[in-house]
């Protein structure tokens, strides 16, 4: 016999099952107690409030609410599948970017994901069976009880430190993690501790394991003094593709040839956060850490940032940046003025032709940058060109005429195969650009810096088949080191003799190393250092690794995340090691470095 409360119980039971499925998929967490008393009450409270507000349309209200929650869970699953971390409310500000990465989203969807919407169908069936529902007086008491539990768990969560957002959400609830981040974001007191961290250059190097040396005493200082600077940031280029061949063909033949007369840093880790490519631009042009969970460019307050272009301007350089996309993408209409570029070229100026992926091809981009050079050389004493390549972007699918590799049959049509083709294409454009500089007589007057922005091979698009192909290609399983390292090449006629440096570096080290070569001192602190000078390094990691992780010259520590426990690996072999006293010291030092990085960043962002 159906009671008055039964339909309401069914509505809340469906929500409970949805929340439980979400917890299992995202956190591999199956504790019924944790779901019932931490995660579920917030969602149930919101549902109860909605039903009380629209009590004459119970089924419609329940249906709409469940669809909205399903949409949130669906989006979180796709996001975490690609980035290996959960999204925050910060990421809602990135919804305008979704059109640019729509193809990538399609690669992430599993048909089972749509089961999150199954309850909508069940609600329709129940609504037809039970019809209009009477008012349930006890609902307001249930809402009050749920509110009390939600307030208690949220207040408790506020008192906990957020070191890694995924682990925090697993322990304190996804909804609570968003509320706590909003609270911290709006509450200035929550950020005050970051401004108290101040480190001298000597103290910063000591945390990394080095003895500080003033930059003008570095052996490499001024090696490229007076030269033009060309900074080329390559989309999705990972270090494991360099000096590698497949089917008798080099993946990066032009870069390999250039490396023979360059300084090649083969152990440089990406340090990007939610801002991905734009974070790499930020670090390459400021020497500062990125925010992490929030894209740095989204929070810039418009204040002038002490940057590479501004420092070089004092030395007679004119600066230009090139990116064949809409200038509003990743808020570059705010980023580029903040960095002080004299000239900005985006899809508005770069010819809209040879479209591939998300805009004009890299060939069009590079040709345009080269065409601008004669005028700039007449205008400025020296030139700094910042070129952001984009064609090798996920999903890496290129027209046949842009594919330069003849891949083995098993690679055809695979994610790894597409990736290798896109990197080979990018390498071709780099080679043409360098040759054109030589033809114009500029190569011997230039410093060329080439680096990858972030990994391309990661997340859900990497199938089991792809993992086997990578193992075959590399000769061993694909590791965290291969995933997170990007090439850094510094070239220029007569500057280097083809030396490879295996010392640890990060993207924050690009600008300090470049300025040292040019013989230019930067007036404000940077988080990075000159890679030619220092043997040891310590990188505080977050976002693509759980908060609290670090990469150090001898150790790589991955802090506990949403699903996996913490682990320590040897940097050379990538084999697991037991934590030791050095690990604990590096964790503390990495957190000090991160706090200092946030303190240096704070004047330029709005919170």
UniProtKB/TrEMBL annotation:
Domain of life: Bacteria
Pfam families associated with the record: Sulfatase
Binding of substrate, residues: 393
Pathway of action: Cell wall biogenesis; lipoteichoic acid biosynthesis
GO MF: metal ion binding; transferase activity
Residue positions of the active site: 277
Compartments (UniProt record): Cell membrane
Gene Ontology CC annotations of this record: plasma membrane
Key word Manganese present: yes
Sulfatase N-terminal domain boundaries: 228-520
Alphabetically ordered keywords of this record: Cell membrane, Manganese, Membrane, Metal-binding, Transferase, Transmembrane, Transmembrane helix
Gene3D superfamilies: 3.30.1120.170, Alkaline Phosphatase, subunit A
Residues holding Mn(2+): 235, 277, 453-454
Family as reported in the entry's similarity comment: Belongs to the LTA synthase family.
Descriptive protein name: Phosphoglycerol transferase MdoB-like AlkP superfamily enzyme
Taxonomic source organism: Planococcus koreensis
């Amino acid at each position: 016999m159906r009671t008055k409360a039964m339909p309401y119980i069914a509505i809340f039971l469906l929500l409970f099952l949805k929340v439980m499925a979400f917890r299992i998929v995202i956190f591999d967490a199956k504790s019924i107690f944790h779901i019932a008393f931490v995660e579920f009450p917030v969602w149930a409270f919101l549902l109860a409030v909605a039903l009380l507000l629209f009590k004459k349309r119970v089924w419609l209200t329940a249906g709409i609410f469940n669809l909205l929650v399903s949409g949130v869970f669906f989006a979180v699953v796709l996001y975490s599948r690609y980035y290996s971390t959960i999204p925050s409310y910060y990421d809602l500000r990135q919804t305008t970017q979704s059109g640019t990465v729509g193809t990538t989203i399609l690669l992430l969807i599993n048909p089972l994901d749509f089961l999150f919407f199954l309850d909508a169908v069940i609600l329709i069936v129940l609504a037809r069976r039970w019809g209009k529902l009477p008012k349930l007086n006890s609902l307001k008491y249930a809402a009050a009880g749920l509110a009390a539990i939600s307030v208690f768990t949220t207040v408790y969560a506020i008192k906990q430190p957020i070191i890694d957002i995924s682990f925090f959400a697993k322990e304190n609830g996804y909804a609570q993690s968003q509320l706590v981040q909003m609270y911290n974001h709006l509450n200035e007191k929550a950020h005050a501790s970051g401004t108290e961290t101040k480190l001298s250059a000597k103290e910063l190097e000591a945390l990394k394991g080095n003895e500080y040396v003033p930059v003008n005493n570095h052996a490499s200082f001024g090696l490229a003094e007076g030269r033009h600077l060309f900074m080329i940031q390559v989309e999705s280029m990972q270090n494991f593709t360099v000096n590698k061949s497949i089917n008798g063909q080099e993946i990066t033949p032009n870069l390999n040839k250039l490396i023979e007369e360059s300084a090649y840093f083969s152990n440089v880790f990406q340090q990007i956060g939610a801002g991905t490519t734009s974070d790499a631009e930020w670090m390459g042009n400021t020497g500062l850490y990125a925010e992490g969970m929030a894209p740095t460019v989204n929070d810039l307050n418009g204040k002038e940032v002490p940057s590479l272009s501004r420092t070089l301007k004092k030395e007679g350089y004119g600066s230009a940046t090139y990116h064949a996309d809409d200038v509003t993408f990743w808020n570059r209409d705010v980023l580029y003025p903040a960095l002080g570029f004299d000239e900005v070229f985006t899809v508005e100026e770069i010819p809209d032709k040879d479209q591939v992926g998300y805009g004009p091809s890299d060939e069009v981009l590079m040709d345009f940058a080269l065409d601008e050079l004669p005028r700039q050389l007449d205008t400025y004493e020296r030139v700094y060109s910042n070129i952001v390549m984009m064609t090798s972007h996920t999903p890496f699918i290129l027209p046949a005429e842009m594919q330069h590799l003849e891949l083995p049959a098993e690679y055809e049509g695979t994610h790894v195969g597409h990736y290798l083709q896109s990197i080979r294409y990018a390498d071709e454009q780099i080679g043409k650009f360098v040759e054109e500089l030589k033809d114009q007589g500029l190569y011997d007057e230039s410093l060329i810096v080439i680096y990858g922005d972030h990994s391309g091979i990661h997340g859900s698009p990497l199938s089991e088949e792809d993992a086997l192909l990578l193992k075959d290609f590399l000769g061993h399983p694909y590791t965290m080191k291969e995933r997170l390292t990007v090439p850094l090449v510094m070239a220029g006629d007569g500057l280097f003799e083809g030396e490879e440096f295996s010392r640890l570096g990060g993207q924050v080290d690009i600008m300090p190393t470049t300025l040292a070569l040019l013989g230019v001192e930067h007036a404000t602190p940077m988080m990075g250092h000159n890679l030619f000078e220092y043997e040891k390094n310590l990188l505080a990691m977050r976002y693509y690794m759980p908060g609290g992780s670090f990469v150090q010259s001898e150790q790589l520590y991955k802090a506990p995340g949403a699903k996996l426990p913490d682990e320590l690996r040897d940097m050379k072999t990538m084999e697991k090691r037991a934590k030791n006293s050095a690990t604990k010291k590096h964790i503390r030092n990495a957190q000090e470095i991160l706090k200092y990085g946030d303190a240096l960043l704070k004047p330029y962002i709005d919170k």
